[in-house]
Amino acid sequence: MIPRVVIHAGFHKTGTSSIQAALKANHPRLAAHVQVLLKPQLTALLHAARGYSTWRDPLTLAKFTSRAETLVAGLSGLKQRPLILSAEELSGHMPGRAGIDDYSAAPELMADLTAAILRRFPRAEIRLVYSTRSAESWLRSAHWEHVKSSSLTDDLATFSARLAGAADLNAAAETVAARIAPLPVTCLPLERSDDPVAALLQQAGVDPALSATLTPAKHRNAARPDALDDLLEINRTIANRDQRRELKQARLRRKAPQT
């Protein structure tokens, strides 16, 4: 059996958390058919990927490459079962942080990761998969996530103008594809993916009949439009990080108004 590796490398805010939760929940049924490595098993590699997306220097890229080689050296059983790696941080930090306005780190990260796999498994069949969504929808979701999780004070219009280049996720995937050609890159649009877990498993060669029996992905980490203005105001007026976090958590504990 030719080793097969599927790398599900993002993008952020495209349903990746839901897919990963479903892969974890269905592990007992999947274990005999596919190996799955998620964020907890990829901690060191993801830390290096985020570092490279921040600093963009040869040293941090070399650290990512070294950790990719360490990960690959520990892989076993690829001739018996395909492997799925699923973590959006394989593409670096989510755009929107200070100094990170796009996914331009992703091509180099994927080039080095796939090269590390091929050095260890020269005959491996590697496929990259990216979850995507429309630009407007992604910008709303990314803006919410940054307002909730960081000290972002930009309103949506300002954020969208700054991140317009990052929001074309298909273009980002095409840039990766050009860098790692001829390896195939597949996009799974959120708006048109009825069963993204099954689509990802299909890339790994899992029998669709098995996928049909799995617990489906549930929507996770949903935005709370009712709380957006309040969280923005907290970010704009509260300087202390701990106090800011506590106030935002308290606001999010309040239920959304019924409509």
Distance separating the two termini: 55 Å
By DSSP, the count of extended strands is: 5
Structural class: alpha/beta
CATH architecture of the largest domain: 3-Layer(aba) Sandwich
Feature tags:
259 residues; alpha/beta; Rossmann fold; 2 domains; 12 helices; globular
Fold and architecture overview:
By secondary structure, the chain is an alpha/beta fold. It folds into two domains: 4-218, Rossmann fold; 224-254, no CATH class. It is built from twelve helices and five strands. Strands 2-3-1-4-5 form a five-stranded parallel beta sheet, sandwiched between helices. Helix 4 packs parallel to helix 5 (106-120) and helix 11 (228-237) runs antiparallel to helix 12. It is globular and about 60 Å long. The termini are far apart. The model has no long low-confidence stretch (mean pLDDT 96).
Structure summarized in a few sentences:
This protein is an alpha/beta fold and 259 residues long. 49% of the residues lie in helices and 10% in strands.
Question: What's the structural blueprint in terms of helices and strands?
Answer:
Layout: E1 4-8, H1 16-25, H2 27-30, E2 35-37, H3 43-55, H4 58-73, E3 83-86, H5 106-120, E4 125-132, H6 135-149, H7 156-162, H8 169-180, E5 185-189, H9 196-203, H10 208-211, H11 228-237, H12 241-253
Parallel strand pairs: 1-3, 1-4, 2-3, 4-5
Helix pairs in contact: 3-4, 4-5, 5-8, 11-12
